[in-house]
Input
Amino acid sequence: MGFTDKWLICADCGRQFLWDAGEQAWYHARQLENQPRHCKSCRERRRDERLHSLRHYSKVSCHRCGSPTYVPFVPLGTKPIYCRTCYSNAHA
Ligand SMILES: [Zn+2]
Ligand SMILES: [Zn+2]
Output
């Protein structure tokens, strides 16, 4: 099975990028039928964005005013959580 380097157009930034024979073999070995649609830098950026969005934010209600607020952890319910406004008021 021979693979030859191929130039593809990134769907994101529109730049050409090289899909080289080694990568084609990799795709083939994994039975991936679709060609990569994004260049390497866009792929890395998208991965970063995905990781970023996966970072867990929990929606909770402010203990004081009841307005929704987001915290970067899973609340255990042992401590009251305040929205940013109430928090800064309490610490003013
Ligand atoms: Zn790109
Ligand atoms: Zn509040």
Residues 6-54 form one domain. The beta strands are 6-9, 16-19, 58-61, 68-71. The longest strand covers residues 6-9.
